[in-house]
């Protein structure tokens, strides 16, 4: 039986929630409410202001920005 494995940026979400103690919806709201608009600016901001690792910040930003398209 095949397992439902989440691929892409959303594959990081369980570990992000576990490591940083906030639901993904809160992280996404932070990204959406930021005055920053460029992908790497948002990644750098999440890393500097919220202590996220690069991979986790990148996954959150990529997934959140893709939703708006």
Q: What's the SSE blueprint?
A:
Blueprint: H1 13-20, H2 24-33, H3 39-50, H4 54-67
Helix pairs in contact: 2-4, 3-4
Rg for CA atoms? 12 Å
* Total number of helices: 4
Question: Could you tell me the mean pLDDT?
Answer: 92
How much of the sequence lies in strands comes to under 5%
Protein name: DUF4287 domain-containing protein
InterPro entries: DUF4287 (IPR025629)
Organism: Streptomyces zaomyceticus
Structural overview:
The protein is mainly alpha-helical. It has one domain. Helices cover 64% and strands 0% of the residues. It contains 4 helices and no strands. Helix 2 packs across helix 4 and helix 3 packs across helix 4 (54-67). The radius of gyration is 12 Å and the shape is globular. The chain starts with 12 loop residues before the first helix and ends with a helix. The mean pLDDT is 92.
Concise overview:
This protein is mainly α. The chain is built from four helices and no strands.
């Amino acid at each position: 039986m095949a397992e439902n494995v989440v691929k892409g940026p959303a594959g990081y979400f369980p570990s992000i929630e576990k490591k940083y103690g906030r639901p993904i919806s809160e992280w996404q709201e932070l990204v959406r409410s930021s005055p920053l608009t460029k992908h790497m600016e948002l990644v750098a901001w999440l890393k500097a202001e919220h202590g996220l690792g690069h991979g986790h910040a990148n996954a959150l930003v990529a997934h959140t920005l893709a939703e708006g398209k």
